[in-house]
Amino acid sequence: MFRNGCALLPMKLNIDSFALSDVQKYNFLGNNKNPMLILEAPLGVPDKTGIISSRCSLNSPILKDIFTDELYQFIHNYLGTKNFWIRNDPVLVWDSKKHRQSNSDSGFFHVDYATHQLSIICYLEDCNLNSTHTVFIPKTHKKFWYQYEFTNKKTSSFIKMALKLKEKNGLIDLIGKKGECWIMDAGNGLHAGKYADDRIMLHINIACSEYYNSGYPPTNDLYDRFLFNKKNSDCTLNRKWMQHI
Ligand SMILES: [Fe+2]
Questions:
Q1: Exposure letters 129-154 (e unless 16+ CB within 10 A, then b)
Q2: What's the total number of domains in the chain?
Q3: How far is the CA of 33 from the centre of ligand 1 (A)?
Q4: CA 109 to ligand 1 centroid distance, Å
Q5: Ligand 1 centre and the CA of 191: distance in Å?
Q6: Quick check: 236 pLDDT over 70?
Q7: How far is the CA of 209 from the centre of ligand 1 (A)?
Q8: Residue 124: how many CA atoms within 13 Å on its side-chain side?
């Protein structure tokens, strides 16, 4: 992660019972007595890019499985502060090829506002090279992107620069099996979406910058109840866990 800016986390969520059809049928919204994901609202209608999404409750049991002490410590270590939070709510995202009329602008390489921000992607269905997925140019998280935070990702000079970096550093496809999770510095690393077959995932953004003033100071429940209730925990780096990422 420190070297490349993204990594597959050494954990696998136990979500065997979850199936895409559950989303299609909205089964897990209320019928399931112990849903791992609690949606704040029914899945919305697809947008032009074929994305169907819903914010998820911070009480969703799956979050407890994702945010292990090790992950908390890792985030602290990477961002260099304990003052981080989940920006917005976790979002269930379903990229539906059937509903896609056009690709999102996120298909162009970009950084998310040039300030370190970690994104966690948890696959709720297998995601392979034929699926819609994120690609990341390794090592670009180490660059200073500040002058580009508002640059239009479609400008030819920016595209040229991204392609040059891609040629030099290569490309990492963030694909994985159901239950696997990636972490990436989407805030300050060059990444893009690749649009293809369906993908279904839980998407979580971890921010630490006051730039995201819509979320600072954090006002949602999470600030008090979820991450920050760990504020007294010992954040000594867990090297055994870290060596995997
Ligand atoms: Fe992005």
A1: eebbbbbbbbbbbebebeebeeeebe
A2: 1
A3: 34
A4: 8
A5: 6
A6: no
A7: 16
A8: 21
219 Cα: distance to centroid of ligand 1 (angstroms): 23
Q: Is residue 245 part of a domain?
A: no
What pTM does this model have?
A: 0.85
Ligand 1 centre distance from Cα of residue 236 (Å): 30
Q: Looking at residue 51, what is its pLDDT?
A: 93
242 occurs within a structural domain: no
C-alpha dist (Å) from residue 32 to 12, 17, 52, 63, 85: 22, 11, 21, 17, 29
Span from the CA of 133 to the centroid of ligand 1 (angstroms):
12
pLDDT in tens, 114-123: 888 899 999 9
Note down the domain range covering 208.
Answer: 6-233
For residue 38, name the pLDDT band (cuts at 50, 70, 90).
confident
